[in-house]
Amino acid sequence: MILDANIYRNNLNQFIMKILKLISLSVIMLLVFNACNSIKVSTDYEAKTNFDQYKTFAFYKKGIDKASISDIDKRRILKAIEVEMAVKGYTKSEDPDMLVSIFTKSREKIDIYNNYNPYYYGPYHRQQITKYTEGSLFIDIIDRNNKKLIWQGIGSGALSKSSKPEKREANIQNFVQKILAKYPPEE
């Protein structure tokens, strides 16, 4: 009888350890997934600028042509910017108050997550390595009259390698929306 109780206790402990391991790995994967899918936004602007004076915009072709991305993605970005600017009450114009330009950067990133579980068959150490491409989208707002940069928004996050155009478009819209949520700056 005592032998059966010990076997039962050992089996129960092993089962609990396996469940804890699965839960901890699931939590780690969730954190990795969220970290890779989050977009970090930062902005900078000319403090003395009266942003209320700007009502119309156009795209700065000379700057946009230099962006090192495909023409398809450029069109997606410009379309997303146009939508967000319209939502904010700005009008696209042939004689604009401000010019909007973009450029991009990307780099390969490697994240290493350590998982240490001293309760699973003694010391247990596992590393999870995640490789991904981090991209940055810069949106510049330029005063048309003096050609000075008055606002810059930068969004950085993991780029999707999706082959579906709808998914790529949704990711770009998300980037642009999060960046332009900070424009105009609140005083």
Topology, element by element:
Elements: H1 2-37, E1 39-45, E2 56-59, H2 61-64, H3 71-87, E3 91-92, E4 98-116, E5 125-143, E6 149-158, H4 165-180
Parallel strand pairs: 2-3, 2-4
Antiparallel strand pairs: 1-6, 4-5, 5-6
Secondary structure: helix percent: 25-40%
Can you tell me the residue ranges where pLDDT is under 50 for at least 5 consecutive residues? 22-36
DSSP summary, beta strand count: 6
Strand-residue proportion: 25-35%
Main sheet properties: 6 strands, mixed
Strand order of the largest sheet: 1-6-5-4-2-3
Structural class by helix and strand composition? alpha/beta
- SSE pattern, N- to C-terminal: HEEHHEEEEH
Shape: elongated
Going by CATH, the architecture would be 2-Layer Sandwich
Annotated CATH topology: Double Stranded RNA Binding Domain
Between the first and last Cα atoms, what is the distance in angstroms? 76 Å
| Count of discrete domains | 1
**Number of distinct helices:** 4
Average residue-wise pLDDT? 81
CATH class: Alpha Beta
The radius of gyration computed from the alpha-carbon positions, rounded to a whole number of angstroms, is 25 Å
